[in-house]
Protein: Protein-glutamate methylesterase/protein-glutamine glutaminase
Organism: Pandoraea aquatica
Amino acid sequence: MKIGIVNDSVIAVEALRRTLAQRPGLEVAWVAHDGAQAVRMCAPVPPDLVLMDLVMPVMDGVAATREIMRRTPCPILIVTSDVGHHASLVFDAMGAGAVDAVDTPVLGAAELARPASSLLAKIEAVAAQQADARIPQTVVVPRVVPETDALVAIGASAGGPAALATLLGRLPANFAAGVIVVQHVDDAFAPGMAAWLDQQTPLSVRLVEAGERPTAGAVLLAGGNRHLRVDASGRCVYTDEPTDAVYRPSIDVFLRSVAENWRSRAVGVLLTGMGRDGAAGLGAMRTQGFMTIAQDRATSAVYGMPKAAAEAGAASQILPLNTIAPQLVTLFGTV
């Protein structure tokens, strides 16, 4: 992988260089010292991955992420000091298209080990996502199932926080369906993201607890680095299987469980994201007769997952982001 480093700290850049040197096959393509320089350096040939700091002069990491994803899209991993302290900026960057975030490694043998291993694990996950994006999917054929109570099952990845804020913000507090969201987000950020989304929508947003059922007017967000499923009784359960899934939590695992186990009305929604996760699961839902929606190209920060769903015939509707919530209200109504 050819990797671009964006950081205005000489010490941080050196720590990142030493971390990347621990893995064969990771090459520093270039170093930029502010966001504007990074945007220019991505223009000729985007690298396989950009390691983006958040707080920099001239142009910060959020603005740079937004510009790179608009002009020359490529995977961007936020690497900054104390991601917990910068949680709001992290979510803004992920809303602009960044795939994940991790603390910057620090120099010093004892101090470097854990942050470095976390960063390398994130890089390996991005590499796996890029490989997964090249795997073809099969076309699905819908059939009809009975209708009763309602669930909206949503999957999102890069660009997801902002897309979710827009979609959920347009749903009324008395929305008649329960909502479950699987967003590709690190375990450390899930609680903060739930709290942040709770401020963006009239609905109540919280992390899913094992054993609970979705309820009208509430949004349940998958938390932790385990897969979320709904079982035959309609309850949410966490599982480590499949252990070889590229994504954790996996949108495909979640949507397939809805297709297999949900006995009432449901709609599957696949939002912006890199790769193909969710396309097969959305297809499984459509095969079972559920309505399925994919976000359109024009409003997607990263047109990867919804594109894969559209190309595989998994989406019964392809809609702009701002029309998805009104469509859901039309389908399910209010209580």
Observations:
- The domain at 2-128 is CATH 3.40.50.2300 (Rossmann fold).
- DSSP finds eleven helices and 14 strands in the chain.
- Residues 138-148 have pLDDT under 50 and may be disordered.
